[in-house]
Design goal:
This protein is of the alpha/beta class. Helices cover about 45% and strands about 10% of the residues. The protein has 21 helices and 15 strands.
Length: about 550
């Protein structure tokens, strides 16, 4: 099944550097406090993506990782910003340390590729991998000597800088494991290998994970083993304290079991910095925190909706004198800021919960009380959903690069239908409408009945309305027709209701729904959902979507 996809964007590095400089100016002029810390975090993420993009561009040009003046300058800037982030975090957001103008100038004067591809760091975007957790993990125990820090790109560029910032490391490099996701390998120049081997102290290997195979950590471990580095000189800094997944090679699993590890976990961070303190400047004193992560929100409801573990985000219900609030991880930096902006638009339109603020990537919204599901008559439901989708089409435009192409969606549909119904069924699928001109928007992508709440005053509120156009899946941003196809299935609309829905969408957005795209999405949507629920092991949901496919 094809379900997942990566997000990236191509930019000119000097343009990215100008944007980073502008963010840093905002930081330097801002008042002390949590909001300035979050803006500094956004700048740090921008610098991390730029360092990753430069290194990957040079990797593609040479076919291997090697040192370069541009990479060294980008990492020096990134370490300088990591020190500022540490100063802010450890001073209670009072200090941000000295300016980083010298490092900015050094990078600006370095030769850089004409264009770079910036990849979304998944842990910072989806999984609440927080910089402060790595600062804590790297600093809480003394090091016998400053380590040589190796970051595993993409996210490892920034995580390595955080580690270097608090360990006084003199050398930081990043490496790009490539190949099959479960069998990653690194390609490193002879010169860089000699430089790595010459180090006589400790090595810190930094990444998120390990994931299903742990092969990225494994690839760096294999390289250090090849260079003759003793296991007791290698310290791994992962984002959790678990083992590699089921696809790990036996030798990698054995190495991991014996390795020195300093996990940078969310749980350890909030032990030192209680979660209430992150939000009380917005909510007032918090008396109770309920963890609703890993599907706990569904277990607390009377209707017991199905959950998908791979779509779950960290979330907490906070109780204060000002009421109950939902703190859900929306992403660090620009991603979380964009979701906060969309949440304000939905609230003003009466379609979403009241947003209060953004702290460390967690979006704080007022808790919505009410009955699960749309408890309104069918005519009212169709009108409301149509106007809601029209609002999204009008207010949330996106770029083509923010979502899968029609070609990729067609391939996904064929692959998933072949898995579900056989190759003959896949071969019989109609071709996608390649002459269509989709207008991508931040779709809802999650119109399932259990994602709606009917309030006591009979208002219909859409929950989970911000994440699915920029998640870790293939689809991303699409034409509004994607949501029309989704509404048809998730709300069991008949043909007359679909026509009324389309009319309501067009009335609000002032543009018609593309019928050719809708016909294609009527196949692509259930094919994608069937693949998604296959990964969750939910046979009932898979059968429901498979029944919609020819």
């Amino acid at each position: 099944m094809w379900v997942f996809g990566d997000r990236s964007r191509r930019v000119r590095p000097r343009q990215a550097l100008r944007a980073l400089t502008a963010t840093l100016r905002e930081v330097e002029s801002a008042s002390s406090g949590a909001e300035r810390h979050d803006r500094l975090t956004a700048a740090f993420l921008q610098a991390g993506e730029l360092a990753q993009g430069i290194a990957d561009a040079e990797f593609r040009a040479k076919g291997e990782d090697d040192a370069s003046p541009a990479q060294e300058a980008a990492l020096a800037l990134l370490v300088a910003l990591a020190r500022k982030l540490a100063a802010s975090a450890w001073s209670g957001f009072v200090s941000i340390g000295p300016p980083s103008s010298a490092e900015l100038m050094a990078l600006a004067l370095s030769p850089m590729p004409d264009e770079v591809e910036l990849k979304t760091p998944e842990g910072h975007a989806f999984y609440a991998v927080l910089p402060e957790a790595y600062l804590k993990a790297a600093a809480e125990k003394p090091w016998d000597s400053p380590p040589l820090v190796i970051g595993v790109r993409s996210i490892g560029a920034g995580l390595a800088a955080l580690t270097a910032a608090v360990t006084h490391a003199e050398k930081v490099v990043t490496l790009r494991p490539t190949g099959h996701p479960f069998r990653r390998e690194v390609r490193v120049s002879d010169g860089l290998k000699r430089s790595l081997a010459a180090h006589r102290g400790l090595y810190a290997v930094v990444d998120e994970g390990p994931g299903m195979s742990g092969s990225s950590f494994g690839a760096i471990g294999d390289l250090l083993d090849e260079l003759g580095v003793e296991p007791e000189r290698i310290v791994f800094l992962p984002s959790h304290d678990g083992e590699p997944g089921a696809e790990a090679l036996p030798e990698h699993r054995a190495r991991w079991a014996q390795a020195i590890k300093r996990p940078a976990t969310f749980e350890a961070l909030v032990e030192d910095e209680p979660l209430a303190g992150w939000f009380e400047d917005l909510t007032g004193p918090i008396s109770q925190i309920e963890d609703l992560s890993d599907g706990a929100w569904a277990k607390a409801r009377g209707d017991q909706p199905p959950i998908h573990p791979l779509l779950e985000r960290r979330k907490f219900r906070l109780t204060a004198e000002t009421g109950a609030w939902l703190a859900k991880f929306a992403g660090l930096g620009a991603l979380g800021e964009a979701k906060f902006a969309r949440s304000r638009t939905l609230f003003r339109a009466g379609a979403g919960a009241e947003p209060l603020g953004l702290r460390r990537g967690f979006l704080l919204e007022r808790w919505v009380e009410g009955a699960p599901g749309p408890q309104v008559n069918r005519e009212g439901l169709v009108e409301h959903v149509g106007r809601y989708l029209g609002l999204r089409a009008l207010a949330f435009p996106a770029e083509a690069e923010d979502g899968a192409s029609l070609e990729d969606l067609a391939v996904m549909t064929r692959v998933n239908v072949a898995e579900l119904k056989g190759q003959a069924a896949a071969d019989a699928l109609p071709a996608p409408p390649m002459r269509a001109k989709p207008r991508p928007i931040h779709v809802d992508g999650r119109l399932h009945r259990w994602e709606w709440i009917t309030t006591r005053d009979e208002r219909l509120i859409k929950t989970d309305a911000l994440d699915h156009s920029c998640g870790h899946d293939l689809v991303g941003c699409q034409d509004v027709a994607w949501d029309v196809a989704g509404a048809r299935i998730e709300l069991d609309l008949d043909e007359a209701e679909v026509e009324r829905l389309i009319a309501a969408v067009a009335q609000v957005s002032d543009r018609p729904v593309d019928r050719d795209l809708l016909a294609f999405f009527d196949l692509a949507y259930p094919a994608f959902q069937a693949g998604l629920w296959t990964l969750a092991g939910n046979e009932a949901q898979v059968a429901r979507y498979a029944a919609r496919l020819p």
